[in-house]
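[retry 2/3] TGS domain-containing protein: previous attempt timed out, resubmitting with same input.
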Amino acid sequence: MLVSVFGRRRVCQAAVRGSRSYGKLYPSACQTERLRIFQSLRDRHASGAAEEQEASRRDLSIRLADGRTVKGSAGVTSLLQIAKSERVKGAVAGRVNGALWDLSRPLLEDCELQLLGFDSLEGRQVVWRTGACVLASVMENLFSARVCREGVSDTGLYCDYQLQNNAPSLLDVEQSCKQMAAEKTPVIKLEVTVQDLKELFQDDAVRLRLAEEQMMGDTLSVYRCGDTVGVCSGVLLPHTGFLKAFKLLQVTLTL
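[retry 2/3] TGS domain-containing protein: success.
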């Protein structure tokens, strides 16, 4: 499946910076600390999840959209594993008993499963949302941007950020995004509390305020893509290699 990602970038301030290849910058001190906190939260979540999965591990019956039933193991079998075993090409997400799930998420109980591709509205949103994570990572790590917010619109993806220097060209950013996508960089997602958010973004009041505004309940999803930790509001792809094409369309300057 050819996945096309279209984006718009909003520049809050500006600067001169030459063309670079992705992956040559080291994380800043703030990024390093944020990555440490993210990993600590991830380890804590993984420990609790492992105990729950071990306690509930059992055989599952999974009914597919075409009426067939396949077997799985609770806490082990993921949507991606089913897509591979059933040779379903182009799956980017799934509906489990009607709820939208990440491909990498393991099933916990008997269910009805519908795998979704880019030809569905939900699938496009998942692809674009992951593309926004890639764009945010590229802007932060290559061009030293201060990312404020990333996400999806009705027609593609966007990333709001601030720069101290002139904005890089669309071509430079687009090529860097394509390179990161080709590296199949893992996209890791966590559910965090308000207190976790405050710890993660303690050095960025704008990012924290915008993240808190997105919270609809007790938790919010954050992600790690490369050396960037950001906020997401939905399902993501397991890694950037699912993005087969990347096209940036415009820059909007905000003073």
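[retry 2/3] TGS domain-containing protein: The two ends are 39 Å apart (CA to CA).
[retry 2/3] clearing retry counter.
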